[in-house]
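Run log // design_07
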C-alpha cells in the first residue's frame, strides 16, 4: 500500500501556500505603517504637547523621519482632552490590490493617551 500526496493534492497545496505568501507580502507593508503610526502617536502623547497644532506638527515631523508613514498626515489626527489626559486618535482605510479584480480593504484605527 503506497502513501504520499497526489499531483492534484500537491498543486492544491502549492496554490494555497502561494496565495498565503502573496497575502503576507501585500499586507505586511500596510501593517508596518500602522505600527509605525501607533508608535509615533504614543511617543507624541508622552511628550504632552500644549496645543492641537503642536500635536499635528510633531506628527508631521515624525512622518518626515519615518519613511513608512505616507497614508495620514497630522491634520488627520483627532486630538482631544479627557480631563487632564491628552488623547490622540487616528483611523484610516487601506485598499490593497491582491490580484487584478480582487482587492483587500483593511480599516485601521488606534489611539494613544498621555498618562
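design_07 sequence
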Amino acid at each position: 500500500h503506497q502513501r504520499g500526496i497526489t499531483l492534484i493534492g500537491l498543486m492544491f497545496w502549492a496554490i494555497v501556500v502561494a496565495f498565503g505568501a502573496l497575502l503576507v507580502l501585500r499586507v505586511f507593508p500596510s501593517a508596518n505603517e500602522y505600527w509605525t503610526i501607533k508608535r509615533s502617536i504614543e511617543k507624541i502623547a508622552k511628550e504632552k504637547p500644549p496645543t492641537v497644532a503642536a500635536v499635528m506638527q510633531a506628527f508631521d515631523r515624525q512622518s518626515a523621519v519615518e519613511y513608512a508613514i505616507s497614508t495620514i498626515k497630522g491634520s488627520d489626527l483627532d486630538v482631544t482632552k479627557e480631563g487632564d489626559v491628552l488623547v490622540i486618535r487616528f483611523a484610516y482605510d487601506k485598499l490593497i490590490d491582491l490580484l487584478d479584480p480582487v482587492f483587500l480593504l483593511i480599516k485601521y484605527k488606534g489611539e494613544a493617551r498621555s498618562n
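The chain is about 50% helix and 30% strand.
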